[in-house]
Specification:
The chain is an alpha/beta fold. The protein has eight helices and ten strands. It is globular. The two termini are about 30 Å apart.
């Protein structure tokens, strides 16, 4: 297998006396969906935030295509081709669908009209992005706050599909969704994989992990206790690893 697109080596992160991450190492390859699983407080979201540039590790390295990088901010992560779907979605209620898809990536008119957004083009491209992913939204001009939970989730995931160039981090993307909405999110995850992106998926839904991922890393009390292929693994095996740190 080729070298990982994303690799973290011996990452430590503490919050006061609490060790959130302890010497965590893992890698994610192009065209792979890696599951990151563990109980509440295991360190999953903390690790994602380190890679997303939201918080800085106390020690360790983050590498992209073998090159050590410093991710001091989410902008640094974006510039490296890293997109994140956060558990809280990170959508702006006061903006419409287009505004959220193009957030911090607004298309401007020619220099002579600098400062003015090309909203017509943005609406058109936002519609093309969502239609290409089979995401059904009443209108890209619709305010985010008036969409259903599933539609909001789909917009957040769709944004990551549209802009993710190398790596997409997903923190519980199907949380609190119905069966059909969860199926759509699973299809979007597979779209990312098929486009050759490296995907890291946090989920408490073990069936979702088995359906979407080819491999999982299990975190327990801030440490990585397992890194296994999922070809012959059951839901029961995963629960055993989460609760005890060892296979059945």
């Amino acid at each position: 297998m080729t070298d990982p697109v994303l690799e973290v080596r011996r990452i430590d992160k503490s919050f006061g006396a609490v060790e959130a991450l302890r010497q965590v190492s893992l890698g994610v390859h192009a065209g792979e969906v890696l599951g990151l699983i563990g109980d509440n407080g295991a360190g999953k979201s903390t690790l994602v935030k380190c890679v997303a540039g939201i918080i800085k590790p106390d020690a360790g390295e983050i590498l992209i295509h073998g090159e050590k990088v410093e991710l001091a901010s989410p902008r640094d992560a974006h510039e490296r081709g890293i997109e994140t779907v956060h558990q809280d979605l990170a959508l702006i209620d006061t903006l419409d669908v287009t505004g959220n898809i193009f957030l911090n990536r607004e298309i401007r008119h020619r220099p002579r009209l600098a400062g003015w957004m090309d909203k017509r083009r943005m609406h058109r491209e936002a519609k093309e992005i969502l239609e290409g992913l089979h995401i059904n939204i009443p209108s890209v001009r619709h305010p985010i706050q008036k969409l259903s939970g599933g539609q909001r989730q789909a917009v957040a995931v769709g944004r990551s599909v549209a802009w993710g160039r190398q790596i997409v981090l997903m923190d519980e993307p199907a949380a609190a969704l119905g069966v059909e909405q969860s199926r759509l999110v699973l299809e979007l995850i597979k779209t990312l994989r098929d486009r050759g992106l490296a995907v890291m998926l946090i989920s408490h839904n073990m069936q979702e992990v088995l359906d979407a991922c080819s491999r999982v890393v299990v975190l327990r009390h801030g440490a990585a206790v397992a890194d296994i292929e999922l070809a012959d693994v059951t839901t029961r095996d995963l629960v055993q690893l989460i609760t005890t740190g060892t296979a059945a």
